[in-house]
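Researcher: We're reviewing a set of sequences before deciding which ones to prioritize for further study. For each one, I'd like a predicted 3D structure that I can look through quickly. This is Phosphoribosylglycinamide formyltransferase. If possible, include the structure in token form so it fits the rest of the review sheet.
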Amino acid sequence: MVLVSGTGSLLQSIIDNQDESYRVSKVVADVDCQGIERARAAGIPAEIVAFDATDRKGWNHRMAAAVGEPDAVVSAGFMRILGPAFLQRFEGRTINTHPALLPAFPGAHGVRDALAYGVKVTGSTVHFVDAGVDTGAIIAQRAVEVEPGDTEASLHERIKKVERELIVAVLRAARAEQGTLRIDI
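Model: Here's the predicted structure for Phosphoribosylglycinamide formyltransferase, in token form for your review sheet.
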């Protein structure tokens, strides 16, 4: 089960690399987006649960209901913070990708922040989702060197390539055990 908010390029990589180790059962988004179109084009059930800032608690309950009972919930470019009602239900089963080597540069601007700080190496992280922003236990990371003259866009494109490979590797290594994910990678 995959959560999306945007173009769905990470979702597309997850879809394209399905095999006997994992299958995408559903895609849920907070907005009508290209990710929903990608899911439907692949024959995967898709649903939009419109974000409601005036009723975050209710929105989290509606998201949890839409997700159902999958072995894993993958946040793939999903740009909303999931609340306690959602996280308690899917604790130990919700994972996220982030375009930096956490714990450095959490939040929505990891690539920009890494460049501004002047790091020589950044990368991609897959981690469990918890109540913080990009603070969950790290599952896997891969480094990406910052090249002279990199812009936020050029560096982010190289990170996205690594991110797509890394999430597929993590999903292939994941096994559902007693309501949580075990990932040996």
